[in-house]
Amino acid sequence: MSRTLGWAGAALAVLIAAPWVADQYQTILLAYGLVMAIAALGFNLLLGYTGLLSFGHSAYFGVGAYAVAMMVKYLGVTSMELHLVGAVVASVLVTAVFGIACVRYTRIFFGILTMALSQVLWSLAFKFFWVTGGTDGLRVPTPTLLGVVTGKGDKIAFLSHAYYYYVLAIFVLCVALMWVIVNSPFGRALQAIRDNETRAQFVGIPIWRYRWVAFMLSGVFTGLAGALWVPLNGLTTPDILHWTFSGKIVFMAVLGGFRTFVGPVVGAVVYNYLESWAVGYTVYWQLFLGVILVVLVLSLPTGIVGTAERLWSRWRTPAQPAEVPR
Amino acid sequence: MDIVLIHVFNALLYASVLFLIAGGLSLIYGVMRIVNLAHGNLYAFGAYVSAWIIGWLSTSVAAGEAARGAPTAVLLALLPAGALAAAAAGALLEPTLLRPFYKRAEEYQLLVTFGLLMIIDDVIRFLWGPYPLSASVIFENFGSVGIGDTLYPTYNFLVIGVGALAAIFLWAFIYRTRFGVVLRATSQDMRMSSALGVNVNRVYVQAFTLGCFMAGLGGAIIVPSQSAVLGMGVDALILSFIVVVIGGLGSLEGALLGALIVGVVREAGITWFPEVELAVLYLMAAAVLLVRPAGLFGRA
Q: Which one in A89, A204, A237, B78 has a CA-CA gap of 20 to 30 Å to A184?
């Protein structure tokens, strides 16, 4: 436990120091990474802890983002805190409805159902252009943080400093909250459902209701990430609702290692760097990422964190003293 | 009345192409229990190969005077090249990339095909660039027929015919040939048929190749009437997902029925409710999943 806290403290120190060390571009990139890390963290509550592979998390990300964009456009709200509340409310509503439909299924049917439902939202955002702006999307100006800090003037400085710390604070809160969730009796029950559904049922766990709550929690984390993403991007487009965006979130979780708690977080930050590097380097960035994904699932299915843990324990084992026979 | 007839033909046109793509997807799932997310891209690959060959023959100076203005029959005979190319790609991909995944969790199978989707997308972009590719010369040479007061492209009838023929051949292939028996046995119980001496690996390659051939054929026959564009694969994949979810994953009868339903709803949607056309299709798929998770024809 103390070593976990040590690692977390070191990582937090690096994240806090980042805007003072790295340049503005790097810091904003890191902010994107942290936002996606929240989404992947939420996603992994379903994949890693409940054993359900959702191919529809773009829906909740998009709902969060569009909730913010609509609040700005139709209600004139500029407060980031209200945006977050709005995004949470919207994603609770959507995930509650979608969840009722989805939690009865597992495996491939769950994946296809979540994908179909997310595509419903995508096609609505795509076709109802007089509400959502269609493919042009909706522009979102920089919000007001805590009622005082605004992005008036230098937008880049705002995003790479005040907004970065805002994202970081919410990221830390989300990680802490998720840690509590997965280590609570509720989280243990989810893992029991993942490992053996029938046995979990015999123990008296109401499987569908637990899955439904997990589905909502997962979607709300992702929706929150969508809301935080909007000011960074300045624009919401239907792309983030398309099922290929869900594929990206799955990619992140697997890249980091979905069997571990921090895997998706690491995966999201690394993926974000990989993608922006590849996009800047070549037009064939999809090919590059596709090859990485294929090689990853072929040879390193436990992801970055899983592989690192294995190497670490292999390196540590010879150094430990031999067990004293009793 | 004429309008109704044209709507019916359009619905059948969509249904034919959708059946070819979704039928392939369903066949592959039925035999090897793998959902190939890159299936739509193989359809796009077929379309690009056909459009490339037809376009080169009908316009390029390099092809020489003999080939310039090649008769429609020659061009038509070359059209299935896309299907063969997609089949070849399938025969190459299954043993190399998919075979290691049959014993592993579904998540990994989906992910490896998702990676494949990204790769094929960019391979197409690399080979043919970002611009649309068309083979419209065939479409134009076919001319049109009058239905009442309106003109309807004759080529569309060919597409409908190919779709219908493919359905009949596939049915005969699976229910009336020795290979079909082996295929169905492997699909029912892979271990048992392996114990009875069936070379399961070979059946898998053949089934995957056949599925890819169908997708490529869908792309090849559609490309004279609409250009091959980037992103056509992902769109087609989603539509064929709807088809197989409605009909039942792994069932060819289901794919046929699903393709007909989706074809009719699309045609009706484009005419009467264009804004929610896609949403209605996705909601239909979701509704079928809720009522009959295995689809109308599927087995759980």
A: A89
DSSP string, B61-100: STTHHHHTT--HHHHHHHTTHHHHHHHHHHHHHIIIIIGG
Task: Look at residue A222 in the predicted model and tell me its pLDDT.
Answer: 93
The type of residue at A215 is F
Cβ pair A127:B278 closer than 8 A: yes
Separation of alpha carbons B24 and B20, rounded Å: 6
Give the per-residue pLDDT at B41.
Answer: 92
Q: What is the pTM of this model?
A: 0.84
Q: Which of residues 59-98 of B touch A (CB under 8 A)?
A: 97
**Are residues B106 and A53, on separate chains, in Cβ contact within 8 Å?**
yes
* CA–CA dist A290, B267 (Å, integer): 35
Does the ipTM surpass 0.95?
Answer: no
Residue A43 to residue A36: CA distance in whole angstroms: 10
Share of chain A above pLDDT 70, in %: 95
Q: Is B125 on the interface with A (CB under 8 A)?
A: yes
The b/e string for B4-16 (b: 16+ C-beta within 10 A; e otherwise) is eebeebbbbbbbb
**Contact present, B24 and B210 (Cβ < 8 Å):** yes
The tens digit of pLDDT for each residue in B158-204 reads 888 888 998 899 888 888 888 888 888 888 888 888 888 888 888 88
Whether B43 has a pLDDT exceeding 90, the answer reads yes
- Residue labelled with tokens 């060919």: B158
pLDDT digits (tens, 9 = 90+) for A297-322: 888 778 788 888 888 888 876 655 55
Q: What is the mean pLDDT of chain A?
A: 83
CA angle A245, A305, A159 (to 5 degrees): 50
A-B Cβ pairs (cutoff 8 Å, strict) = 120
Residue from B39, B107, B278 whose CB has the most chain A CBs within 10 Å, to mutate: B107
Tokens of B79: 């059209």
Q: Does A282 touch chain B (CB under 8 A)?
A: no
CB neighbourhood size of A21 (10 A): 9
- Do B282 and A126 count as a contact with CB atoms less than 8 A apart? no
Per-residue model confidence (pLDDT) at position B189:
83
pLDDT at B150 over 70: yes
Q: Tokens 């904003």 sit at which residue?
A: A28
> Which residues on chain B are in Cβ contact (under 8 Å) with A247?
37, 114, 117
